[in-house]
Amino acid sequence: MVFLSDEELVRRIVEEQDRWAGEKLIERYYRWVYKLVYEKMGNNDLIMDVTHEIFLRVLKNLNNYSVKKAKFKTWIHAVAENYIIDVYRSRGKAEWISIEDISEEGMLLEQLEERTKKREQLAEVERYIDGLEEPDGVILKRKLLEEEKFAKIGQELHMPESSVKTRYYKAVEKMRKAFWEGET
Fold first, then answer.
1. CATH architecture of the domain covering 6-94
2. What is this structure's pTM?
3. Alpha-carbon gap, residue 47 to 76, rounded angstroms
């Protein structure tokens, strides 16, 4: 059996619509993506569905993959992370704790309280960011919540990257003081 690189499999899928190459690519990365989804989402009923949807997105968007920009594993990781974030946003984090998880995993009350506390803290941070003056709030939101690069944020806000970085770090410092020194 000849081993084909990820790039060769991608080429065969994109140029020749090679079903076998698609199956091999999925087979090669399925366990890895499943593990990533499990680590991000915990043990719940959606893991299989999310993993499946990630591979549908990967196959649908293979023509956007460029070996010059990243290794295939890096690209598929980005696709997976972005989809998981989309799922969290669309469903809300409160739905990730199911009754089955609590009974099957024997989740302690303290763990449930800790998750609730983290959700409340996240909501408080989001409210704080929403209350910041422009463009600081936009910069923080895009960098922290959407994980965009400084260059892209600067480009979209028509600001030099250095200015975006400066405003970001000042806003982070201000937020740190507000939350850890009680200025909220």
1. Orthogonal Bundle (1.10)
2. 0.50
3. 16
